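Review form for a predicted model. The reviewer records the input and the model, then writes brief findings.
Reviewer: anonymous (R2)
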Amino acid sequence: MIIRPAVLDDAFAIAALYGHHVLHGTGTFEEAPPSPSEIAERMKAVLEKGFPWLVVEEDGRIVAYAYAGPYHRRSAYRYTAEDSVYVADEERGKGYGSAALAAVIDACEAMGLRRLLAVIGDSQNEGSIALHRSLGFSFCGALPAVGYKAGQWLDVVFMQLPLNGGDVGTPE
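Model under review:
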């Protein structure tokens, strides 16, 4: 397993991996898979702000990715980020998501961030909830039935991980 920073040339593989989740899952509320060029634009937006976007390779193939980006644009949120993590469907349960997210957590800590949020689509998304919990995230709330996808109303689950002391002290 190799964990490395994503490059724009990875957009095609990331779009294919994510597209499967868009079409067959409820962890994302997107309903139409974004094109590789749209993924590349999203990657640029994250990377240009200095946030991490990482991929996991196994045998030369991208099997997972994770990134963090600004939680909101208002300046008071500058110490808070939101993560995303996706694993190729056929590669679940092999530790790729955990490795990718752990590396993103480390990168966010190195940036001096104080809080990392997970905004998880579907309260029945046990895999993502368990993954985040295993890395120290705690449940902090849910919004019931705020999304409608695949013929069903879906919740959003919020989890959070304090970094660099969380809300203790003054950020540098």
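Findings: The mean pLDDT is 96.
Further findings: The radius of gyration is 16 Å.
Recommendation: see findings above.
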